[in-house]
Amino acid sequence: MADGIEAELKVAVDAAGASRLARIASLQGLNVTSKGDKRLVSTYFDTPDLALRAKGISLRLRRAGRSGEQTVKFSGSFSLGLAERPEFNVPYAGRVPDLTRLPDEVAAELTRLVDGRPLVPLFSMRVTRRRWEIVTPGGDRVEMALDRGAATAGSRRADIREVELELLSGDRRALFEVARLALAGIAFHFSTHAKSDLGYALLEGEIGPAGPATAVDTHLDEDMSVEKALQLVLRSCAAQISANIAALRVSENPEGAHQLRVGLRRLRTALKIFASVMAPGAADMLAAEAQRLAAEVALTRDMDVLIDELVAPLDGGDMTALIDLLEKRRKAARARLAAVLSEPALGDFLIDLLAFTEARGWLSTDDIGQSLGLAAPVGPFAEHTIDRLRRKVEKLGRDPEALSPDERHELRKRFKRLRYAFDFFESLMPKSVRRKLLPRVKAAQDVLGVLNDIHMAHVMLDDVHAAGPKAGAVERAVGYCLGWHSARAKAIWERRSDDLSLD
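and the corresponding structure tokens:
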């Protein structure tokens, strides 16, 4: 591409997905032209003490046949599969970098950072790149590239299977239109790092299977607009969702299901919190799909909690027969979740969420006043949101003893929404709030969370009916578990019910 800002959508796929993509010849409603294959060998250079890496700069020599290219990419935006980085390319087929071939300002900056130290090869990437040019009915042009190969750093190696969609001309929304069709039915997750990051991770020995991921901080400041804050919050939610979908596809670590459910709940909370500045109904489909997926994940997560936190730790009875029965149910729940994670609807949801986030899907076509709300500073918006959610908690939690089971469940949801709002806006809150109120919200959430887990244990264990020679042992274990946790719930309520009031 020409020198300037690199803007691409990048996703990682598995081997089966890469093989399927490689055979693409047409996409419904789009004009697809194959551009053939290229074998690319890229070598990345830095100083021995990684001076360029420290500044978010990558320096690469790439060869394709007899031709070559020298590329410098500077630090930019790389989040949720979308990369926007200033880059500079010059034709060059040498085997060591030549900074003098770069534009004067770029060469001067790199020369200053290198400061006379040698530029040494650190890692390389060998891929076969298959390319297509895709044109939408509106004339938007998108290049799609499938890279298959490997990165190596010394004796360490990592597979590369990545799809890049670059907007050549036209409306940015075309990226998502093409991605939705090209990736239909293919398991993928958003890439959150550049290829150079993969190489540096290999160099440092940090490559391994994708693991569960907690929420990414939003880093808001008071002068930021409401719209920018909305976009950063949605990116944080979507990054957590995408990362934990990837983790669940390769591991049964219970934390993956937990963090995926948290990510989906955070997303639904964000859509509610910012609803006042969105076009009416703009996010309804996303919210509904997030709720559906959360319900599917809950089947596995609740079983994980039941077995690992409520049944297995008990010492006063023989839980073996009950655990064996529950493990069969957990296996079935995980199989169901794996099927859900492979459904085309999940890929559509991820693309739609990214399109909503990056193409400003909340905009109204007829609400003239919307722009004022979106452009307003986020500080007062955050303060009003926290105050409103806090009042809702206080109203229901004034007399915890008088709450019905349904009201207690509603209070738990209100505390959860308040907690997520705190997470979104924490950097904007006064120190006094972070020091005093936030710990109280966390304490209340802990109490209600434990009580909810115990309630779910009753619901799930009431449905356990064994047959055969182990039936008696299962029934005794169920009775012991329910009795023990009922007593525990009562003690927790008597000891900590005051934690539910913020007055």
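(Above: one complete record from the training split.) Residues 4-203 form a domain with the Hypothetical Protein Pfu-838710-001 fold (CATH 2.40.320.10).
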